[in-house]
Specification:
By secondary structure, the chain is α/β, with parallel strands linked by helices. The chain contains 14 helices and 19 strands.
Length: 515
């Protein structure tokens, strides 16, 4: 917050002739130590959040507050006068951690408790690559009151309808104009004199998605891991839950906890219960896209989300998980096999995508190619081999690499002119589903490494449709193996090292510095 625009007396501020109720001002400071910079971010954020929470408690209690309540996010800023990078051998191979050229770069920050490790890495790389100080201060971007509540804080629920309506006059509410994805989409243009972006997401955009994740998955953002599996069938979730509880019964498991919707936490046998575990409660019904988490201490465990059927859900959930900056996400699900040589239960490793899902057409034009990422492809193929114990031609017999088409029309085969069938044939597609292209495209858009491994569950072009008995047999036989392949792929990616994952294929030539 620029001290020049306001005259301050304690907690009061006169701003544009309107009385505001602000926290005590914390001056900006410059740092060459990344840990010290992070500590200052915490200081600013915690003070501003405490101010909002205290004001909200007073408002709920019926008090008249002394003006419009406002608190703002911290910011971090870096300025350099040269295109040169003074990077170490370790950071030189990374696709992030440096600004694109001379100029002033800035972003607002939120939840330093959740993003501490992430922020520390970004600060460290910026200092190593540019050897200029980081400036940390209080921005002029207000924190919406809704984003100040603690995880289990529901004090607003006791407000009357009239009192709730008056909140707009007393507090800052979420402003959608501050949350668009112009930076991610490559359409953002800074105004003259304005700083260039340092991160894909501003603090309000991050906070918005963190709240959406609670709503859609039924679990707190704190439990999400850096490797994510998506599926379009509950059968996979049932098996993941079984494996999760099996891991918790093993005192030597690499995973320390298993978390289910409602923040229900099961700790590894022999582990102590953590503070907050007791607050978990099985929900009366599952959320729209329930999330499950096999937790590791360094957040490199596995999150699995049942996104259901359709590209709209696939876009929605990846829009929000992207702000957590995962190291990879992979789609595991069922598909229609389009080739007569395929058998039910065969696997399809996507190396290209036909996008007829339409949900990302405005954000990511169809002329943008969605490339396969070598590290993900290699890990998935190796995982299939490890789990099935097949190699060479035997492996190729059950797994085909090819183009996957995704459509938003579940009944595409009923269209009278055979248009979709013709286009899928022209594209050389070997499989069809409704989600994979969306997840891959949003991975490309948000610079999150992505991959797809599908399992053929029917062949509508060849008269093999799902019948109840056949489907049940197929599910029992294949789901466990398919899921284990996905989990094995994540193990291989983890062993490879996450610094190898964030491909330059996902970065533009005028890219933000933050991973």
């Amino acid at each position: 917050m620029d001290i020049a625009w306001a005259q301050k007396w304690g907690g009061w501020t006169v701003h544009n002739e309107q009385m505001s109720y602000l926290p005590a001002f914390i001056a900006p400071a410059r740092f060459t130590n990344p840990a010290a910079a992070l500590a200052w971010v915490r200081e600013i954020y915690d003070a501003n959040i405490a101010h909002l929470r205290e004001a909200m408690k007073r408002y709920v209690a019926g008090e008249t507050l002394p003006g419009h309540v406002r608190a703002c996010y911290p910011f971090v800023r870096v300025q350099t006068d040269t295109v040169a990078r003074l990077n170490s051998s370790d950071s030189a191979r990374l696709s992030y951690g440096f600004v694109a050229g001379p100029g002033r770069f800035e972003t607002t920050l939120t939840r330093p408790d959740l993003y501490a490790t992430y922020y520390l890495e970004q600060f460290t790389l910026l200092l190593a690559n540019h050897e200029v100080a980081l400036e940390v201060g209080t921005s002029t971007q207000p924190i919406p009151i809704h984003f100040s509540f603690a995880e289990n804080d529901h004090i607003e629920g006791s407000l009357s309808a009239e009192r709730r309506q008056l909140m707009r006059d007393v507090f800052d509410l979420p402003d959608l104009a501050a949350m668009d994805d112009g930076i991610s989409n490559g359409t953002y243009q800074a105004r003259p004199g304005e700083s260039q972006p340092l991160s894909l997401f501003t603090a309000p955009r991050v906070d918005y998605s963190l709240h959406r994740l609670r709503h859609y998955t039924g679990t707190a953002p704190e439990y999400f891991q850096n490797f994510v599996l998506f599926t379009n069938y509950q059968f996979y979730i049932d098996e993941f839950v079984r494996l999760g509880h099996e891991a918790m019964a093993n005192p030597n498991s690499e995973y320390m906890a298993f978390v289910e919707p409602g923040n229900v936490v099961t700790r590894r046998v022999g582990s102590a219960v953590a503070l907050g575990d007791e607050l978990g409660k099985v929900p009366p019904r599952l959320p729209q896209m329930p999330g499950y988490h096999l937790v590791r201490a360094d957040r490199s465990g596995i999150t699995m989300v049942n996104i259901g059927v359709g590209p709209a859900n696939a876009k929605t959930i990846t829009d929000h998980i992207a702000v957590l900056r995962p190291h990879a996400w992979i789609m595991l699900g069922h598909c229609a096999g389009l080739r007569n040589t395929q058998q039910l239960g065969d696997y399809v490793l996507a190396h290209g995508y036909v996008r007829e899902d339409h949900v990302l057409d405005e954000e990511l034009p169809l002329w943008v190619p969605i490339p396969a990422l070598a590290e993900i492809q290699v890990a998935l193929e190796a995982a299939v081999s490890d789990v099935t114990q097949l190699k060479g031609q035997e492996l190729k017999r059950i797994m085909r690499t090819g183009t996957v088409a995704s459509t938003d029309n579940r009944n595409w085969e009923l269209l009278p002119d055979n248009g979709p069938q013709r286009r899928f044939s022209q594209s050389r597609a070997v499989a069809l589903d409704m989600e994979s292209a969306t997840i891959a495209a949003n991975g490309f858009r948000f610079r999150v490494p992505y991959g797809t491994l599908l399992c053929v569950s029917d062949k509508p072009l060849h008269g093999e449709i799902k019948l109840p008995g056949m489907a049940n047999h197929f599910y029992r036989e294949r789901v466990d193996q398919h899921l284990r392949i996905g989990m094995r792929a994540i193990e291989l990616l983890r062993e490879l090292g996450v610094d190898q994952l964030h491909s330059r294929k996902l970065r533009s030539f005028a890219e933000v510095a933050f991973q």
